[in-house]
């Protein structure tokens, strides 16, 4: 999955999302609720397919609410944005996960904010194309965590897992500890804390999944003493 040099920035997409939520308020009020309890912390400009991915995190309490009440995954049709050059409204493909905007499909992700007037959004008759949620990274993680029982797996955030590469090593997130930091597992089953702005970004905190549950009971406060050390 290739990345363009960043041109469209987080602030542009955050502005667009707020305008979109306002435009859809009467028909989809749940979008504002999820936006209010999530933290939008980065964007990725993707080359294949050409799109803008929105990364966000949730507090433990918010994650519980989202995972219980907002189990959605759909493409939204019926939204158009004004093309600055043609002065015409163009339909745009938007994908939502857990009632939060997750992907904007566009041929020009790198200059999306210059091509479109993000203040000019037109909502016609909307249609939701519900999608089957498939996360290939989740399947990998579930195999790695095979020693754990069902109750232990339910204390992790595997629905949101994704791969992170650090120093040519793959990690798979299992808990979001906010601000772009995670608890993750490698392919050998070792558990790490990943802190993106730390002098040691990846540090082993348990040698295997079972050992991890000797320090984690389902409350992220259990991990406070080891996260930033």
TrEMBL record:
This one is known as Uncharacterized protein
